[in-house]
Amino acid sequence: MAEPVAIAALALDAAFGWPDWLYRRIGHPIGGFARIIDACVAEWNRADRSDIARRLGGVATIALLLAVSGGGAWLIQQGLYRSLGRWAWPVLALLACPALAQRSLYDHVVPVARALESGDLALARAAVSRVVGRDTAPLDEAGIARAAIESLAESFCDGVTAPLFWLLALGLPGVWAYKAVNTADSMIGHKEQPWRHFGWAAARLDDGLNLAPARVAGVLLCLAAGGGWRTLWRDCRRHASPNAGWPEAAMAGALDIRLAGPVSYDGEVHEKPWIGTGGAANAGAIRRGLRIYRRACAMLWAIAILWAAAWGIPWLG
Predict the structure, then answer these.
(1) I want to staple 45 with a disulfide (CB 3.0 to 4.6 A). Which of 93, 198, 228, 244 is the partner?
(2) Confidence tier at 316 by pLDDT (50, 70, 90)
(3) CA 38 to chain centroid
């Protein structure tokens, strides 16, 4: 019954998201994953451990996360089916909804565009710092806009498309197992020390779980924009990630701008290749990107509805 669950979860997320007042009161489920990861880092990624021990510790961390997230969600799902039968789907949708980020992503990117439109670069830097991990202090208007659009494109995959993919494929266990792995990748899946060995399992598994969703996301963004295909096919592999380049190249082509390029983390500049051959990003490009994003999200709704229709929708009968 994953299909009606997916449709209802998308609707709940679009309508309500995860409000700030709720976050202030109880936090977010992903925060629980972060605490587990922090505890594992403290125990299994100590400086006195060998590289092999660190890699094994990283594997154990992912195994623990999958047991808690996927295993826990499976037990809850089975319990709901046994107790509520065909009417388990509304509760499952409510439990799946926090794994999606349609509204949250939109609500975080819009303030960046508004600040740039008003000419307030300081406010724009503060707004974009909520959605990116790079240094924002040195960014000019083009850099701020580029960072916001890159985050919008990449997060369309790992915040919307991939969670929906795994929700449709494996139900509640699938979506929460994906979110646990994706959280681990964002925290520890880095090539730099001290994460190179400990974060290896998180990075590789996240790459595998995003392999299909990233390509779906890129195609949907081009369909939503009515263009960008040439840049998608040419530049999708210019990103260090095997997956992030797909939605970023699609968005760069759709907006006819350049994304990626040199970026600073912790004061160190990383010379990344450019994606796209268009002009510099600006507030207008962010607004156009948001319109493309909304249309691409609508296409995901259509996919969920068609998938449900193909398998039958038991809650309508």
Answers:
(1) 198
(2) very low
(3) 20
210: its two tokens: 């995003």
**CA-CA-CA-CA dihedral for 148, 167, 249, 116, to nearest 10:** -10
| Residue pair 209/181 in contact by the 8 Å Cβ criterion | yes
- The DSSP bridge pattern shows strands 268-270 and 263-265 to be antiparallel
Q: Which residue type occupies 24? A: R
Lookup: tokens for 8: 């209802």
Which residues form the domain of 162?
Answer: 2-316
Q: Count of domains in the chain?
A: 1
**% of the chain surpassing 90 pLDDT:** 79
With vertex at residue 221, the alpha carbon angle to CA 283 and CA 300, rounded to the nearest 5 degrees, is 120
> How much is the average pLDDT of 18-34?
86
Contact 37, 183 (CB under 8 A): yes
| Average pLDDT, integer, range 143-172 | 96
- The whole-angstrom separation of Cα 280 and Cα 269 is 19
